[in-house]
Predict the 3D structure of the following.
Amino acid sequence: MRKLLVTGGAGFIGSNFVRYTLDHTDDQVTVLDKLTYAANRATLDGLPADRFKLVVGDICDADTVEQLIAESDAVVHFAAESHNDNSLSDPTPFVQTNLVGTFTLLEAARRHNVRFHHISTDEVYGDLALDDPERFTESTPYNPSSPYSSTKAGSDLLVRAWVRSFGLRATISNCSNNYGPYQHVEKFIPRQITNVLDGIRPRLYGQGLNVRDWIHVDDHSSAVLTILDKGEIGETYLIGADGEESNKHVVELILDAFGKDAGDYDLVTDRAGHDLRYAIDSTRLRSELEWQPRFGSFEQGLAQTIDWYREHEDWWRADKADTEAKYAKAGQ
Ligand code: NAD
Ligand code: DAU
């Protein structure tokens, strides 16, 4: 029975990973999470007390990190400031958590020789033209665009250096855009679903032509467990499920699910430096580690996600007004 330390386990992907791990393994899970605005304590309600524990704390706090890593067999590091729009209005917490926090964890992991898996993003590779036949692979050069993605790129490079210089037993995964339950209403898909539920028209940045490569969060979780079990130390794996969609098409699917007109949205101020397209080639993960996504189609996963937000207003309601007020100030 493995003891896992999951940082950021009260956020969207971390909490889904914790549930998935408790359901599919015998692992004991300790979550270290600062409970920032992005976390919701209710997300972790009902988890089995004999296998799960929440420690409220900061990954930049070396004493807390040292103590928790000393008790762990492996760390899965999700904690981050994760929202591009926020990184444009104030990059400060991004530099602190994503860079200093990752450094703090790496130092403790090397002192205790603990297996480390670092969760990262496809955004470290920059963006692609809409008609580029190539997709991102493990050898695509880093070229991040935003304060968020540049701090994630920096954190990846720290992990690589700790592997090479100190022999840290680490792996890295770079995943595409996740969707599913428990995602904060600041993010694209939950924002548009909850807008429609509130009678507000969905908001598309620019012309809505930007493309994201969607993956259901449970498929991200299964990929991370696969890499933790079978991944080669020092290696990077790209995680994706061939889910490319334009933002406009995603909004049209959401409107259709609510029986609304496909054109019932507003075009708003574009994001500064807005990446045009992300696309992942996950051949390596599929061929070397025999991973496969379980969600057959984006439409199927989106329909489940829409149902989840319809049924869990109690979970998202408290964040909605503040989030929309922030967007309104930015003309979005
Ligand atoms: P999120 O914003 O929903 O959750 C982040 C969590 O980290 C929150 O619970 C927050 O309280 C916690 N946290 C933030 N700062 C902390 C600190 N200093 N100490 C301890 N905890 C702290 O983010 P998410 O969307 O779940 O993303 C999780 C990870 O996955 C991030 O590393 C992100 O870069 C990566 N990622 C996200 C996506 C995506 O589509 N959302 C895709 C690929 C990779
Ligand atoms: O690619 C992985 C990344 O995906 C992760 O690393 C990030 O943590 C995660 O937030 C996500 O980043 P994006 O910037 O792609 O996600 P976001 O949900 O903010 O936006 C998705 C797309 O939708 C993007 O092109 C911007 C656009 N958008 C977003 C919002 C909130 C809109 O058109 N309207 C909106 O209201």
Observations:
- The chain has a mean pLDDT of 98.
- The CA atoms of residues 124 and 149 lie 6 Å apart.
